[in-house]
Amino acid sequence: MRVKYVLSEVLVGLWRNVTMTVAMIITMAVSLTMLGASGLIYTKVADMKQLYFDNIQVSIFLEKEASEQQVADIRTKLEGDPLVREVNYVDKDEAYKRFQEMFRDSPDLLSVVKAEQLPQSFRVNLVNPEEYKAISEQYSTVEGVDQVVDQSRVLDKIFDLFTAGQNIALVAAIAMAVAALLLVANTIQVAAYSKRREVAVMKLVGASNWFIQAPFVLEAVVAGLIGSVVGLFALIGLKKFLFDGALSALQGLFAPVSWGEVFVTFPVMAGVGALISAVTAWVTLRFYLRV
Amino acid sequence: MALRLHRVDSRPVIQLEQVTKTYPKASRPSLDNVSVSIEKGEFVFFIGPSGSGKSTIIKLLLHEVSPNKGRVIVNSKDVTSMRSWKRPHFRRSIGCVFQDFRLLPNRTAYENVAFALEVIGKTKAVARRVVPEVLELVGLGGKEHRYPHELSGGEQQRVAVARAFVNRPLILLADEPTGNLDPDTSIEIMRLLDRINRTGTTVVMVTHDSNIVNQMRRRVVEIESGRIVRDQARGVYG
């Protein structure tokens, strides 16, 4: 009976102030979508770092006229280096093959470049890709080395971009969360005001505090949960139309976002949405109802 | 020791022990070192001019405000030290009636009384059994389904009394219950409170309606500027 009473009060409450309820749901949804997106980007960046750094190489390009002795010396030095995990030598022919592969769509370029014009190089996998600097310092001055190029520096720029995107989403999530919070506080105040006579009577006859507060808190929680459901649909839309749609050309670059990962964010979004609403409502009631 | 034994024997249901209450920002205390003892089943008037502190007594008994000094004991519970989460349960043993009735305008007489039961966890079945009974008792039989705006002031106050009494409280507090009523209606309400008092309920009434006090000839405690200036067993108004 009491459960039924509380639930009907919640529905009446949400209806009574339907414009505020909708505003609350929308801000909550945007905030939670941003939060979910930020979380997804965060896990993706971590995944991709793992993926890329495992395969990342430092290329040591040799001078075209490096002698065989110089090449052999460098190889010995690299193989004995504790920072190095794996060494591959790419001679001029191999380099030409890769070049052909890379520029197969530009026959003009291919026709003018000869194998002899390409530098031979060592492709080095590091034990720890972050230690690129040490390798670069050691080898760029060695006889016969032209330059040391690290792929991870390029990747770092890409990752910086992702991290910036993630931070923007997070900031937007927090800003919207603050807006949602203020809306919840305001809605609860309006609701408490419109039910002030009932609340006064309830306090007078000794209704328990939870019984007085529950409809208000639940009203906010229900709005928060609806907001998180809307947010889930927004994330589904983002994956379907943006990630799998417009950005599908870049799929080789990004680690794919699975449906599982999208749905796993829902409990987090729902939990955060419900918790923020409940705490805000409860704190507002403390000040406003003094129960 | 002897004093304490005496107290236990007489079982006061309400006891104020040297209570001082000063509201924040007030220049002088609303109640200044007030001690009063009210026994079970008594009918007591608190009288005095506006601002004398008599309404503060009601607020103290409801645990709406706490005293700065002294103790308030209701129904052998020390209200002064009561934790606020225990207050709801404590209030179920006290009924309360006000000058402005405080009825819910969008509920009928029946629903107003039933509301008080349902929000403290009583079932609808209990309400169906008890509410018509108490409405009959206050003389509103047949008017259960009227809304407050369809009832006269006296009838509205009867609904309020029914709501206060439906839970069979030990104590009924009445804060100027006749303040908004004409003299004839006031007397009817007083008859009703008297009838409730005869069921064993302690009635504490704050008023400055001299007519009523003089007619009832009950215990009168007069307060002036926060102090008790008179406590008379079968008193009249000043």
UniProtKB/TrEMBL annotation, chain A:
Membrane-topology descriptor: Multi-pass membrane protein
Protein name: Cell division protein FtsX
GO process terms (BP): cell division
Cellular component terms per the entry's GO annotation: plasma membrane
Species: Micromonospora endolithica
UniProt function note: Part of the ABC transporter FtsEX involved in cellular division.
NCBIfam families according to UniProt: FtsX_actino (NF038346)
Family: Belongs to the ABC-4 integral membrane protein family. FtsX subfamily.
FtsX extracellular domain ranges (all copies): 56-148
Annotated PANTHER family: CELL DIVISION PROTEIN FTSX
Keyword annotations: Cell cycle, Cell division, Cell membrane, Membrane, Transmembrane, Transmembrane helix
ABC3 transporter permease C-terminal domain mapped to chain residues: 171-285
Subcellular localization, as worded in the UniProt entry: Cell membrane
TM ranges: 20-42, 168-190, 210-234, 266-289
Subunit structure comment from the entry: Forms a membrane-associated complex with FtsE.
InterPro entries: ABC3_permease_C (IPR003838), FtsX (IPR004513), FtsX_actino (IPR047929), FtsX_ECD (IPR040690)
Domain of life: Bacteria
